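Weekly modeling sync, notes
Attendees: AB, CL, MP (scribe)

Item 1: holo prediction request
CL wants a bound-state model with manganese (II) ion before deciding which constructs to order. AB pointed out that an apo prediction alone won't tell us much about the pocket. Agreed to run with the ligand included and paste results into these notes for async review.

Input as submitted:
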Amino acid sequence: MSSNLRFLPEPKTVAIVGCPFSGGQPKAGVDKGPIHLVEAGLVNQLEGLGWKVKFDGHHLFEDINAQDDPPIGILKNPRLVSRVTQSVANVVGDHIKNGELPVTLGGDHSLAMGTISGSLSHHPNTCVVWVDAHADINSIETTESGNIHGMPLSFLLGIGSSVPEFDWVKALLRTDSLVYIGLRDVDAGEKAILRQHNIKAFSMHEVDRYGIGKVVEMALDHVNPNRDRPIHLSFDVDALDPSVAPSTGTPVRGGLTFREGHYICEAIYETGLLVAMDLMEVNPSLADSVSVEQTVAVGCSLLRSALGETLL
Ligand SMILES: NC(=[NH2+])NCCC[C@H](N)C(=O)O
Ligand SMILES: [Mn+2]
Ligand SMILES: [Mn+2]
C-alpha cells in the first residue's frame, strides 16, 4: 500500500516527539501532557492505522536555573525556551529529512517555534494551519503576560523587535502562509498585528457562520490554493470547547465541538499534504481525573484523525 501522504515515502513512519516542557507559561503540569498521551496507548493506536511508529522515550531537555534566566523585557524563561525550542527544531527537522512524519506532543505552545522551524528547514514552502483559541502572535512589544507560549508566531514571522536570545529562529514563515481556525481570545495588540499584516483568521464567528467544512476549505484556499504545499498542523487543544477538552491551562468557552476539531484533522489528512503535526497544551494536572482522561483521549483521537482514521 502506498502512503496517502505526498511528501512521505514508504513505509509510512510517524516519529513521536514527546516534549515534556512547560517553560513557555506559568502553570505546572503541562509538561506531563506527552507522558499521558503515550500512556493512553497512542503508539498502538497509530500502529493500528498502519503506521510504523518511532518512539524512543520523551525528549530530554536541558534545565536552566531560574536565577540564570532572568526575564528579557517581561519575557519569562527566555533562555530556557530558546534552547529547548532550538533543540526541538533540530529533532523535528531531522525526522522530516529521514522521511518521517514528526508528531510533537506538548508541552506548551512555545514549542511550535521549534517544530515549525524544523518543518521550514526541510520544506521552505510549508504553510501553517494553526488551530487555537488564541493567536499566539504577541511580540515583545505587545505581550502583556510575558509568557512565550503566547508569542511563537511573532518570532517565526519576524514581527516586532528581535530578541537576540532568539536569533537562531529564522523568520522564514510568510504572513500569507499562516491561517488560523478557532480564535476567540485575541489580545488587543494581537488584533492590531493580524490587521496590520493581513493575516487570515477564521474565528469561532466564522465557524458559526459558514460551518467547519466551508471554513477548512476557505482556510486551505488561502494558504494552499493549488493544494501542493506541505502543511504543518499546529493544534492547541484549547481550540476545543472546555466541555470537550477541560484539562488545559488557558481554557476559553465557546470553542470547537468534538466533531469540528476532528473534522479539521480529517480534512487536512485528506489533502495528502501533511508534513508535521503538533498537539499542544494538554495539562493533566488541571481538573479532575475524569476530565483529564477525557482530554487525553480526545488528544489521541485528534492525532488518529490527522493520521488517517476515518469514520467508515
Ligand atoms: N498557547 C496558549 N495557550 N496561549 C495563550 C496565550 C494567552 C495570551 N494571549 C498571552 O499572550 O499570554
Ligand atoms: Mn491556546
Ligand atoms: Mn496556543
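Recorded for review: Residues 109, 134, 136, 138, 143, 145, 147, 149-150, 187, 236, 238, 250, 281 surround arginine (ligand 1) (CB under 6 Å).
Action items: CL to compare against the apo run; MP to circulate these notes.
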